Amino acid sequence: MPDHIALRSKDGKSITDGLRRLARGEMAPADTVAWVKACAKSGLCVAACPQKDVGLDAMLLVRVAKQRALNDTQQIPTKHDPTLFPRVKIFARLQLTDEELDTWL
Question: Which of 26, 44, 75, 94 could join 21 via S-S bond, C-beta 3.0 to 4.6 A?
Answer without folding.
Answer: 26
